[in-house]
Structure formats: structure tokens, C-alpha cells
Amino acid sequence: MEKNQNTKETLLRLASHKHPSEYLLRTEELSISFGTKKVVKSVSLKMDRNKVLAIIGPSGCGKSTFLRAINRMHDFTPEAIVEGKVFFEGKNIFVKREIHPIELRQHVGMLFQKPNPFPKSIYKNIEWALKLHGFANSEIPGRIEQSLKRVALWDEVSTRLKDEALDLSGGQQQRLCLARSLALEPELLLMDEPCSALDPKSTAKIEELIKELKQSISIVIVTHNMGQAQRVADETAFFLSGKLIEMGPTSGVFHTPQHKETRDYVSGKFG
Amino acid sequence: MALSEIADARIQKRRQKNNFFKTLTIATLVISLLCLAFFLVKILVDGLPFLNFNFLNSYVSRKPAEAGIKAALAGSFWIMLLTGLFSIPLGIGSAVFIQEYLPSKSRWRNLFILNLSNLAGLPSILYGLLGLTLFARTFGLGGSLLTGALTMSLLILPTIVITSIEALRSVPKNLREGAFALGARKWQVILGNVLPSALPGILTGLILASSRAIGEAAPLIVVGGLSFVAFVPQTPMDQFTVLPLQIFNWASRPQKSFHDLAAAGILVLMAMLLAFNLISILLRYYYGKKSKY
To answer: Which residues are CB-neighbours of A50 under 8 A, at least 6 positions away?
Structure first.
């Protein structure tokens, strides 16, 4: 009986075993340093489609730095040195011939800690993003409406699309930024503590959106808030001083952590 | 009891010192304001009687009662227009290169900024001499509006570049990152987001620089701005005069009535400068509201 059970598990595991290139996102020995300071140390992880991955860890553990490597944001920091490999849909993102950074950023959107709408109208914020990627003029109004609907902002702003985006509330601004990324129809969305500047109500809305968006895209979310990780994430990765300590299904990481450091962190012994 | 009396006396003394210092600072303010007020009243008393439509619409004349600033006004507008045309694109372009394209720790960048700051503080007569040798003589443009405007452009370029660099530097990083993260290229980020956000600061610099350009007389004297011009310049190659030159000319004559004309000219110049500053405040207010970050 027990033996049978074991075989079944082995079979299941074999069935779910994928070829590496089938993963949406895969990092191999990814290390990032600023000057001589190594911030991310040899992180390897894999991520499936239509999943939400939360990255948790204390301040300065390199989780944001890791996240920003995935859409090559370190290109704009001259002193950043990125080593190792990142594969998005099987393509090495650091090789231009495989995927150009511009194309990568269309497919991998990003939401920042502080809402950063452009000092333009609500409409133009999204239009600008679409025009960058050469969407046809006839397509633009439809896409703008659709993306605003996807973030549940349409009903709030449909009558004042020409208003300044900066006149919106913080939560609305963050959802506009989300809509701006979604308009490009990314497969993966990177969120860098997207709720840290928001009030609880707006936070709840963003979390609601994350759960909805999971139907169509994947999300990597860096968060300080362990409650948030448990609420929204399928998988959780725990970072400590630049290393990936543990990664697995969220409930496992929080309730049956394999490492002492993880146990101490999720139980609130440090953080 | 005794202890608290001593303490009271000390507090009293410190309060006196405090008041003394306060009075001192007020006195310095009053002195400088009084000087300005005296100057203003003198100019108003002398100049106001001459300030009428005829004054604005007449050419210079040997008879003070018939003299006016038509040619000087036209010259000032020409110089302003041409100077803006040359210096604004050059200044903003250079600032964009220095701030956006040169690495922030590069030696070149520091060298440029250091030199620009020095150039901004250079006496204006030196620009006049440069303009004279380069534009008037070498390029053979003579004492034309073009020479004057090019010289003025050189004079105000450092100011424009420096204020524009400051304005670009103050554009928040997360705005740029947001644009880059959407897949924008560098020029798209600069043209689409960074420059519009820096606009209020850039405009302020432009207007400050332009007010310097319309107030300067020295460089134009050197490059050959005339003081007796009885026509409105028609092309950039025409000879010209400007308000400060006209004022300088009138003020250096012996007759009292010409001094009064100079006062009237100063009033017009001050009104123009005030208008400029008003525009800059309004623009900053308008764009500042748009780009509260």
C-alpha cells in the first residue's frame, strides 16, 4: 500500500517534470553586485505560468535587486554588475539576439513601490506606453478602455480621462500604472512592494486585482507584508542576505518551513 | 529665591541681546529698501512727465521734447527674439547631453559644469570683445542685429545650461524608471517625460537669462550697437540700438532734460523686466501645478 503510494507520487512528479525551457521564468546562478558589494548571490529559481510568486525577506536582503534584474532595470545603473543567466520563455534575456531589452520590457511589466504616473492626462499615460510599441492609432482607444477596465478603474475615471493623472488618489494612481503596463499585454508582471505607499483599502483592491490577473498572466511580487504574501501568492521565496534560502508553495513556506532562518523570519523572530 | 532672581536677570539680558540682534537685521533691510525707494521715487518724478505714447512712438531727436525710444524698443525686441532663437535650443540641448548622457561621475561632466559656472560669472564686456572679434570681424557681420544677438546668446548660454541641468536633475528617478520599464528608449524617456517635467525649472532659467539679455548694455556697445538710430531695423543684418544703450546715451549728455528722458527709458525697461518676471511666475505656477510629484 505504502509502496503503491510512493510509486504514484513518483509518477506524478515525473508527469509534472518539465523541460527547463518550458518555464515562464528561470534564473540560473544570478548574482548582482554594486561595485564591490554583492547584493544577490547565485540565485536559481523557476516559475510557472499563471502563478503568483511572492519574494519575502528582511530589508536589504536583495529581493528588489533580484526583481529588477528580470526586466533589466540594472542597465540604467552603471555600477551594477549582473552575472548568471535569466531565461524568459526559454530566451536568455541578457543576449540581445534572443530577446531585445525593449521587447523584454513589453512582455515583462513592472509596478513600482511609489505610484509613478507621468505628469500627463490619465488617457495619455496609457497612450504613451502604447505608442512606444507602435500600436495602431485605431487600436489605442480600445486598448486604453480595456486596460482601465482590467484594473477596475474605468468606472471611476471614464468621464475624466483628460484629467491630470497626478490628481488621482494614491491607490488610483497605482492602478493606473498597473493599467499602463497591462495595456502592453505582458506575460509577466513584476511588482516591487506595490502597496507600501497605499492605505489598507487601496491595498485590498490591488490584492484583489492580483488574484484576478493570475487567470491570464504571472506575477512576481516583492513584499514586506507576510500577510500579503499568504493572501495572494501560490509560491513564496525567502531571501536572506542575497541568498535564496527557501522556495515552495506558500502554505509550506509559512507553516512547515524547511530551514531555521525561514522559520525564524516567518514567525517574526527577526525582520 | 535669590537663585531665581539671578536666573531672571540672565533671561532678561539674553532677551535684550536677542532684541538687539533682531533690530540690527531690520535696520539692514530698511537701509537697502530706502536706497531702492529713493532711486525709484527719483526715476518716477523725473521720468513720468515724459512717459507718453509719443515717447514710445518717436525716434531719437536733438530736441528732448520730441525724442522717443521707438528704435530702441524695436531693437530690444529684435535682440530678444534672435537671442532666444539661438540660445534656447543650444542651451537646452547641451544641458540634456551633459545631464542625461554623460555618466554622472564622469570627469568631463564635472569639467563642463565647473567651466559653465565660471563663464556665467564672466564680466559681460568680455563677451562683447569676443563678439566683436568673432562675429563682427571674422564672420564679417559688422555691427548688425545678428552680431548683437549672437553675442548675447553667448552671454546667457551658460546660465541657461546650468539652470536646465538643475531642472533636469530634479526630475524624480521613479518617473524615468517608470518610462524605461514600459520599454521606452532613452530619447523617448527624455522627450516624452523628463523634459516636460523639467519644463518649469527650464522656463525659469530661460526667463532669468532673457531678462539679463535685455538689461545688458556693455557687450552691445563693444559690438557696435549705435545710440543714434532713427529707423526700425527691418532685417537681422540692420544696425540697431537697444533700450539700455539709449538710456546710457541720454544719461551721458549734459542737459537735464535728457537725464529725464533717460529716467523715462528706465521706467520702460523696468516695466519690461517686471513683465518678464511676472510671466515666469505665472508659467511656473501653471506648470508647477501640472507636475506636482
So the answer is: A214, A215, A216, A217, A218
